[in-house]
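Cont'd.
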Amino acid sequence: MSAVLPVARLRSLARRDVLATIAAVALAVIVLAALLAPWLSPYPADGTSATHPADSLLGPTGSHWMGTDAVGRDVLTRILYGARTSLLIVAAVLAISAFAGVLLGCIAGYAGGWVGDVIMRVTDVFLAFPALLLSLALAVILRPGVGTAIIAIAATWWPWYARLSCAAAQAVRGRAYVDSARCLGLPRWRIVLEHVLPNSLTPVIVQLSLDAGGVILTAAALSYLGLGAVEPTSEWGLMVQQGQESFTTEWWVVTFPGLAILVTAFCFNMLGEGLRQALDPRRVIR
Amino acid sequence: MSGDPVLDVTELSVAYGDRTVSTIPALTVAPGEVVAIVGESGSGKSTALMAILGLLGGTAARVEGSVRVLGTEVVGASEKALRPLRGSRMALVMQSPQASLNPTMRLGRLLRRALKRHGVPAAEAEARIADATRAVGLDEALLQRFPHQVSGGQAQRFAIALAVCLGAELIAADEPTSALDATVQLDVLALVRRLAEERGAAWLVVAHDLALVSMIADHVLVMRDGEVVESGPARTVLADPRHEYTRALLAASPTLPTGGAR
């Protein structure tokens, strides 16, 4: 798919954009750590439901590198398991938002007229609500949990993709190959799916990467407020919330999950920025 | 040339608001015939072609008159009514071959998809593809590539192969050679002539180079400011241009006819 993702361009950019490359490698490590959490964790049982009240709030030592939390669970283990939760939420939210947004946006952009108007006005209604507020309202109505967090965040996220794809599809609509597809006698939905959509994806790919960091932060915020993931699920925002009472004395309970949120969100943003520049046709690469 | 005309245009006019940009009083193209519409930029030749193909529906253009393709009226027909005509009966070869091909789709996939859409069974599709690529002189291995991985001439041959493959009886070409190198231009035009003679499709070619296109056309229409100023057999127009504009066009032509292409 060299037209969507110019591989040679990316490779030559990887050599120049060191920061984005480091971010990409770091993200690969984080994803791998999340996948291998049951094997990498020193105390796999702590990632789910085990508690050890006797080991409550131990500082970082050789046996607990990042200390333990209020119920004696290994913080490192819960961070590794928390990566699974965060990445699951990111993947689900972005998949739902991108699927719905791109499809609706491409239809609106290609069809135009009243069809486009209806789709884009509905999109505007969703955009009119502050995202976190709408997520909070949805999370309050539904039962707190990872699934609720995904639905609540996706509901506020898809309109951006609809906007983006609509603009991209409007630009693609005037291209010769779309007229050419029309001249081949292809039905409209095929033109949208096979000719308009694949050529409207570049800005979406960049946006996905830039948004991943935002989704992590929003998911953490929801569970911090008690509206996202619930005990005994490992989730970084939840860990920060649970550790905040003892922050001044037992700093490790809050600091390490906080760092995990920071580093992951930062890496996604750096990668997104790198991709944005790599895919910008105006940028000259030698 | 004999037989019922594939394309029959009478009193066609295209207007934007109250400004008429293109009129063609009469034009017929028979099977196996190549008809050229020639004029400079803004003469209304491409607009006429778009109207003939029914591509101006949904735009601000007002189309009047009659365009019959294989007996079906195109003027005023809905997009849905035109769909059965498109591809399998009338095809368009565009000016910029690479821009007219979806950059994310391999050439072969585009071809197979189009054939499938027109209800051609897979086995017959492969036979048709082999036949069409041979007819246009295109290496079948190129079908594995994306549009940006082939040359302009190869892409234009592919676009023609696409029309041949679908069995189009009317093939319209909008400046099919102006984006190509001079030597490739002649090859592609010779290909158009040969396909018209061998396969019997009717060709309607829009071009700005009168001398060049006259080498392969049976009949020529010269347009200026939206009107046909001269119309006649290519040989007559070339040898004895009546209108001073035609003479100016011939004088301005960068390519001198050598008579070799026929």
